[in-house]
Amino acid sequence: MKLPEPPRREPEENVIPMINIVFLLLIFFMVAGTLEPHSPLSVDPAESERGAELAGDPLRVLIDAEGQMAVDQDVVDDREQLRERLKVALAEAPERPVEVKADADADSARLLDVMDDLREVGAERMQLMTRREH
């Protein structure tokens, strides 16, 4: 008795190697890429020869070239609002370091006012952020 030949099945495409490649590319871009937090103000700090980093999670105060100020991600309208924001932030964590990032073209009087405000609200550790010279 002769049976009919079973129909030939096409080999299934194996998608596992393609999935592996996609995951490897994803891991590569996650490791190679760095995400920088969005800054509410455009600040180009002055250059310096030396630098040191503050330990911990610093509170960041920004001053742009036009004198606008921001605390972390929030723009503040004036020094009174800045002091209030700083008081609240430092009341939660008084030992939290503060980084002041001022634009190289910012008014130095504004920078000194902000540093006075920081001392007034009880900031114990503060540092002026710069970028290294090339």
Q: How would you portray this structure in words?
A:
The chain is of the alpha/beta class and 134 residues long. The chain is 34% helix and 18% strand. It has helices at residues 16-32, 79-92, 108-121, and strands spanning 47-48, 59-63, 69-71, 74-76, 98-102, 126-129, 131-132. The chain has a 5-stranded mixed beta sheet with strand order 4-3-2-5-6, covered by helices on one side. α2 (79-92) runs parallel beside α3. The longest helix is centred in the N-terminal third of the chain and has 17 residues, at 16-32. The protein starts with 15 loop residues before the first helix and ends with a strand.
Instruction: Give the SSE order as H and E letters.
Output: HEEEEHEHEE
* Order of adjacent strands in the largest pleated sheet: 4-3-2-5-6
Q: What is the overall shape?
A: elongated
Radius of gyration based on Cα positions: 27 Å
Contiguous uncertain segments of 5+ residues: none
What's the number of helices?
3
Classify the beta-strand content into a percent band: 15-25%
Structural class by sheet pairing and helices: alpha/beta
Give the integer mean of the pLDDT values. Answer: 87
- For the record, give the distance between the C-alpha atoms at the N and C termini, rounded to a whole number: 88 Å
Describe the main β-sheet briefly: 5 strands, mixed
Give the number of DSSP strands: 7
Estimated helix fraction: 25-40%
